[in-house]
Amino acid sequence: MILYFSGTGNSLAIARNIAQSTNDRVMTLTEAVQQDLTAEKRIGLVYPSYDFNMPPAVRLLLPQLKISADAYVFVIISCGAQAGNCIWTAKRLLRKQGVRLAYSHKVRMPDNSAIAFGRNPNNQIWKFERFAFRLERIIADVKVERHELHFNGWSFLGWLMGQTFLEKGMIRTLGPKVNTDKCIGCGICEKVCPINNIVVNEKADIGKHCTLCFGCVHFCPQQAITTNGREALKERQYHHPEITLKDMLQK
């Protein structure tokens, strides 16, 4: 079973590629916490790096998983550059459940948070070709259930960015906000939000539990959701080329 958390499809694409090669199923992490997965012999966790650590939502969901201590558990991070404390944090949380992390790695992908700083994530598609070898290696390792941890170190910056006051500050600064003049209440943002933090009546209303996945920003057809005070220009909206809006809606 490959469990994933994804805002714009990077982690979902990785999860699908692994699952297709290992004959596993994929499932959102949000759905997985409601299941008894103790019969699964292999569990993969695929999620992104946000600010040098795992997304706050993943940190809350991971301890709720019901998995066997005997399962082969691996973690794969999608990231713009640095994995930070993503894998170290997962290892620590799993250990508290009596589960040993057997394998870890990362795959560099376009950074969807670039849109919050006026940059275009689509200018980073060169990463797909350059780091394709990494995913091939990961798949080969997972197939034989190799035990090997990569990028699992602890860093001060990763620890610092994981502090509550900084996380809340980042969410206040970068957190998506709805431009009610442009919002048409189509409901797409509500459906793509991986933590059900958005409710749409006549207009979209973003709740207080945002985890900064930016899925709503990138998939809004009206470019009606801003981040860091910036409009989401259509040419800067990004999703993984293998993942469609339909894929995200089937979470």
What does this structure look like?
This protein has a six-stranded parallel beta sheet, with helices on both faces. The chain has a two-stranded parallel ribbon with strand order 3-5. The chain has a two-stranded antiparallel ribbon with strand order 9-12. The model has no long low-confidence stretch (mean pLDDT 94). Helix 4 links the parallel strand 6 and strand 7 (101-108). It has two domains: 2-160, Flavodoxin domain (Rossmann fold, 3-Layer(aba) Sandwich); 168-249, Alpha-Beta Plaits. The chain has helices at 10-22, 29-32, 56-61, 86-96, 126-130, 132-143, 156-161, 164-174, 188-192, 215-219, 245-249, and strands at residues 2-4, 26-28, 36-37, 42-48, 66-67, 72-79, 101-108, 148-149, 177-178, 198-200, 204-206, 225-226. The chain is globular and about 55 Å long. The protein is α/β, with parallel strands linked by helices and 251 residues long. Helix 1 (10-22) packs across helix 6 (132-143). It is 33% helix and 18% strand. The longest helix has 13 residues, at 10-22. The protein has eleven helices and twelve strands.
